[in-house]
Amino acid sequence: MDNPQFSFVTFDGNGDTLPFSNIGDISFQVYSEKKITSIALTDIDGNMIETSSNYITSSGNIHYIIPIFQNYPDCFRIALVGGNTILGTSNLFSRTDSKYTSQLTYICNEDSYGFTYCPQSMVNRVRLPFYLHTPQFPQSQEIYEKRNGRKVTMSATTGKEWELETDYLTEDMHEKLIIALSHDEVYVDGQLLTKTGDYSIDWSNYIEDMDGKRTAKATCKLSANIVSRNSNCGASCAPVEDYFDVQPRILTFEAA
């Protein structure tokens, strides 16, 4: 039993605790030479709560898992089962309703970063302790100045960009998040976004977690892939200045 190097969901006993909010928050892949016949929801100690076999897709030794259960406790793990044997148990998930977490979905058009995406096109999905804030609307435009000094916008593009800010994360979690954000397609809470610029970790203000590991916050920019454009081509309306040449009509009323 093994998982891709940069998978947030791990089965080696070393993974960080992950937040959980909705049924659709988890989708991952693992490698196993043994057949996975079912998946189980367990408590912290590994005691089974519920099992399911409806959300497993396999291609050779690669298994794509979408764990969907009826009753999630506040803290749980996911166990992969082969017959009557537990093949592996995941890191811990903790239920949260915090607005400072986001659902992250990512996929590539080819096998990348140790993940196998072809031919199944299976996405990775996980909820992580980061959020988007302070949207900006970066613009680029081309201006033409007429002989009379009037400036005309020849073309303009307006985008939308957010600041991504993480909670305090370990070095391992930061590396996995950078890899996830570098995929071909990245969705945050269902919106297609692209990382622009560097992912900056503030190690100067680190704190140590309960295991003595250094954790720090990080920031980066994410941009929407849809922009608004004004190309100023094929104008069919009268020039705006024509409207200002029209003399206003003056209406008068006589008293009855």
Write the topology of this structure.
Blueprint lengths: L17 E3 L7 E4 L6 E5 L5 E5 L3 E4 L2 E4 L9 E8 L2 E5 L3 E3 L6 E6 L16 E5 L1 E7 L2 E7 L5 E8 L2 E6 L2 E2 H11 L3 E4 L2 E11 L5 E2 L5 E3 L1 E7 L3 E3 L9 H5 L12
Parallel strand pairs: 1-9
Antiparallel strand pairs: 2-6, 3-4, 3-7, 5-6, 7-8, 7-9, 10-11, 10-17, 12-15, 13-14, 14-22, 15-21, 16-20, 17-18, 18-21, 19-20
Mean pLDDT: 86
Helical residue percent? under 10%
The percent range for strand residues is 35-45%
Model regions low in confidence, pLDDT < 50 over at least 5 residues: 242-256
How would a crystallographer describe the biggest sheet? 7 strands, antiparallel
Q: Termini distance?
A: 96 Å
Q: Which sequence of SSEs, written as H and E, runs from N to C? A: EEEEEEEEEEEEEEEEHEEEEEEH
What is the number of helical segments per DSSP (H or I, 4+ residues)?
A: 2
